[in-house]
Specification:
Helices cover 63% and strands 0% of the residues. The chain contains 3 helices and no strands.
Length: 103
């Protein structure tokens, strides 16, 4: 199993075809990252949540899977992560607005 890594070195070819840095991960590693993301999401503040979602998205972009079924499953994982991200973000922003109106 390969270890996920972040590639940003200009001398090293980037793993995505569009030239963006990404985290190279297998489908199993992406699932593990997503599981950690889903478990920790309720405790994240806005910055932590944003960083974790970006990390998961980079792993999705750098997915090294030749299997079409795994690519489909990975897209479902990212869609679910994005949906939960937006729900949690709305909740945190509404809490911030409520606190701002109290003070």
């Amino acid at each position: 199993m390969s270890t996920p890594y972040l590639s940003t070195s200009p001398a090293e070819p980037l793993p995505t075809s569009i030239g963006l840095p990404s985290i190279c991960a297998s489908f199993q590693e992406l699932k593990k990252m997503a599981g950690e993301y889903f478990r920790a999401l309720p405790s994240f503040n806005l910055d932590e949540m944003d960083n974790a979602h970006k990390c998961l998205s980079l792993a999705y972009l750098g997915l090294d899977s030749a299997c079409e079924n795994e690519q489909y499953q990975a897209s479902v994982v990212i869609m679910l992560a994005s949906k939960l991200f937006l729900k949690r973000e709305a909740l945190l922003l509404s809490e911030q607005d409520a606190l701002a109106t109290v003070y």
